[in-house]
Amino acid sequence: MTPRARLDEPLSRALGQARGKNPLSKLGLETVGDLIGHYPRRYDDPGRLTDISMLRAGEHVTVMARVVQATVRSMRNRRGALLEAVITDGRHHLSLTFFGKHRGSLYAHEQRLVPGSTGLFTGTVGLYRGERQLTHPAFMMMGEDDLESDEDMLAEAARPIPIYPAVANVPSWKIAKAVRTVLDTLTDADVPDPVPLEVRARAGLPERLAALRKVHRPDSMADVRAGQHRLRFEEAFVLQAALAKRRARATGRPATPRPLAGAGTGRTSLLADLDARLPFDLTSGQRDVGAEISAELAGARPMQRLLQGEVGSGKTVVALRAMLQVVDAGGQAALLAPTEVLAAQHARTLRALLGPLAEGGMLGGTDNATRVALLTGSLGAKAKKEALLAAASGEAGIVVGTHALLSEHVQFADLGLVVVDEQHRFGVEQRDRLRDKASAAPHLLVMTATPIPRTVAMTVFGDLATSSLTEVPAGRAGVTTHVVPAGNERWMDRTWARVREEIDRGGRAYVVCPRIRPDDDGGGGEDGMETLPAAAPAPDGDAGALLDPGEAPAAAPLRAVLEVADELRGREQLAGVEIGMLHGQLPPADKDDAMARFASGDTPVLVSTTVVEVGVDVPEATVMVILDADRFGLSQLHQLRGRVGRGTAPGLCLLVSDAPPGGTAGTRLEAMVRTTDGFELANTDLELRNEGDVLGAAQSGRSSSLRLLRVVKDAKLIEQARTEAIGVVTADPDLHYAPELADAIAEQLDAEQEEFLERA
Questions:
Q1: Under a CB-based contact definition with an 8 Å cutoff, are residues 530 and 37 in contact?
Q2: Which residues form a coiled coil (predicted)?
């Protein structure tokens, strides 16, 4: 039997169950490999009881506690019997309730629940007359395990107790028993190790099976730490090897060099002409990053670069200068944007910056002018035909578009540079489909307006070199942020009065809502919104992973664009003010009209979904009101705030929320008030959020490839694994001599998972 076949063995067979009967399938555990990869969530000390005061109603929990009493009695008002028990952590008490048809059916439980004995109890926390209780909890008392001798019992009593992510009817100790059964049958030959021997030796790591035993069956917490360290390294190593392979594959194809246009070519440089007409000076960061990009564009290996920066730091100008260098060298550039609103905004911005330089073949255009074409799915037949022809003929040196650019009907004369804006909205296949439209490997510039902590960039975008813009162009007045309590009518009146004051000064105001219609379930249509879900029970439940009380679902329904627009039209503070609307389900022409009327001031208040989150640039906009602000992530709040204060007038951001202070949602809002530094907010976001969400690890239908790795705490380990992985892939690009590593990459990072990884 091959190692892979051993790990692929169905659990029903491995556990001696009837064919097809797998009690762990509710957890998505179908094979031996699934089970040994289901790591404990925490470990209980046999001598330490769970803090019962931390339990929250609605949570599915596993607690260790001591029995105080257990009594069976007949029910007063109906037939049947009731077993009432009380358990304690030494300070607080928790009731257990069991119902039965008759007293005898409950005596077995009563005999096990001996006062003074300790056990593990799992169930959903409920409230009865204001007191916490577990109804019909599953439980296991210490000493009930099947052990062969007193020595075994003593050894077991001293071991840390693994507490696994569990569900109802599959308590943690049943998972632990299944894990023990499987581990006892495995040998090193059954468990492929993706970390090569020489790497393990340099890093001082045990073999994989030994690490698994330390994690699942530890003799001490030192075992746990050693096993987890090894498995964290493995996760980082496999991921970094996958990124190294992708980087090697991308740079393996030759690119057409696109050097800066030099003097004496007989043709004026578009890039030089742009620099001469810019109404502002480039920041030092823009100049430095521009020089990096320029040098790579001139090379014969395709550039692979991530450009990240603060909101308003001038990424678009840097990207435009790179595109013009390629156009000057005879090539074309494509800019891929995630939404039609953003694509149209980019096209307008580029044309405005270029002026006559973007009017090639038109009256008033310069001799060396090019064209900026816009291609989206909703264009009319005539406009689409013109855009397709401009791209295919090379008449358009710059082609801006949405997913429509990926269509097989789109062709380029000589595609030399692909710019992807807001990379997290696209997957690997989409990015590569556009690059495949070039005869030689095009250069790639990925832009993100969400500042990424270094460790996340290294982990998620490890196949890209990273450039960062941290300066904001001179002349911007900045943004002040306040939290407004949604339930306080006086504060809300002042909010809309403040909006009116800004409008009377010539400003504009965004009002952002998480939904389009009041009856939406929060999806928001085509806006690509990423509002946080309502709180839900943790999958395992245990007292160490309880929901923060500040994350409970809001009692009031989420605000919606249509109802808020109607409400504002009736507000005394905004009497006589035109209110516009913008959301992803509007026809493209209506979207363009809404933005144009907002920019001109015809409708100075725009009620919108997060479709305005990135790229939208209206310098006159000075107020951003975000309703239900606690339902948005930090990066999204930061992007929304970045839509105001882009001109010379100061900006104001009002976060309307009823989230209590101290909870996770409240902490997010407090961070927004405290700083406008996107990199600081990104680190705060990483600390607050589940890292699986940050890294895009919640793959559909598959277990996460990152289970123990923490990109903040494990930064040094990630760097170590990255160095080792690059060395292995450089020496053996196809991993002929590391087949276990190749298999791990294929299994953990298949095409679907790679797409999630890219969209982190």
A1: no
A2: none
Contact yes or no for 688/668 (Cβ under 8 A): yes
Q: Is position 720 within any domain?
A: yes
**CA distance linking residue 442 with residue 525, whole number of Å:** 34
Give the whole-angstrom CA distance, residue 421 versus residue 604.
28
For residue 11, give the amino acid letter. L
Question: What is the percent of the chain where pLDDT is above 90?
Answer: 46
Residue 408, number of CB atoms within 10 A of its CB: 7
Same domain, 512 and 639: yes
**Strand 42-44, strand 161-163: pairing:** antiparallel
Whether residues 493 and 609 fall in one domain: yes
* Single residue among 648, 675, 702 that ends a domain in this structure: 675
E strand or H helix that includes residue 64: strand 60-74
**249: how many CB neighbours lie within 10 A of its CB?**
11
521: CB partners within 8 A, 6+ apart? none
How large is the average pLDDT for residues 289-293? 96
Alpha-carbon span 678 to 8, nearest angstrom: 44
CB burial of residue 496 (10 Å; 0-12, 13-18, 19+) = buried
Please check whether residues 647 and 712 belong to one and the same domain.
Answer: no
Any domain includes 726: yes
How far CA 252 is from CA of 246, 313, 426, 442, in Å, comes to 10, 32, 23, 12
Q: Read off the CATH number of the domain in which 642 is found.
A: 3.40.50.300
Tell me whether residue 662 is in a domain: yes
- The three-state secondary structure class of 632 is coil
Q: In terms of residue numbers, what domain contains 566?
A: 479-531+556-675
- Which of 213, 199, 59 lies closest to 127, judged by CA? 59
The count of domains in the chain is 3
**Residue 124 · residue 134 · CB < 8 Å:** yes
Q: Is 603 helix (H, G, I), strand (E, B) or coil?
A: coil
Residues 111 and 92 sit within 8 Å (Cβ to Cβ): no
Place of tokens 């074309």: 332
Question: What are the tens digits of pLDDT across the range 338-397?
Answer: 888 888 889 999 999 999 999 988 887 888 899 999 999 888 899 999 999 999 999 999
Q: Which residues pair with 625 in a beta bridge?
A: 511, 654
Alpha-carbon span 17 to 149, nearest angstrom: 26
Question: How many other β-carbons are positioned within 10 Å of the β-carbon of residue 538?
Answer: 17
Gyration radius of the chain over CA positions:
30
* Same-domain status, 200 and 280: no
Contact between 684 and 671 (Cβ < 8 Å) = yes
Last-in-domain residue among 404, 431, 448: 448
Q: What is the pLDDT of residues 517-572, one digit of tens each?
A: 887 654 444 443 334 433 333 333 333 322 233 333 444 689 999 999 999 999 99
Surface-to-core class of residue 576, CB atoms within 10 Å of its CB (0-12 exposed, 13-18 middle, 19+ buried): exposed
Q: For 365, what's the count of Cα atoms within 13 Å in the CB-facing half-sphere?
A: 15
Cα separation, 325 vs 155, whole angstroms: 70
Residues 413 and 396 in one domain: yes
Q: Residue 463 and residue 458: Cα distance in Å, rounded?
A: 8
Instruction: Give every CB contact of residue 101 below 8 A, 6+ residues apart in sequence.
Output: 79, 80, 81
DSSP letters of 664-725?
A: HHHHHHHHHHH---HHHHHHHHHHHS-HHHHTT---TTS--S-SS--TTTTHHHHHHHHHHH
CA angle 208, 211, 214 (to 5 degrees): 155
Same domain, 429 and 506: no
Which has the minimum average pLDDT: 76-85, 700-709, 710-719, 727-736? 700-709
Is the pTM higher than 0.70? The answer reads: no
Same domain, 416 and 483: no
Residues 327 and 422 in one domain: yes
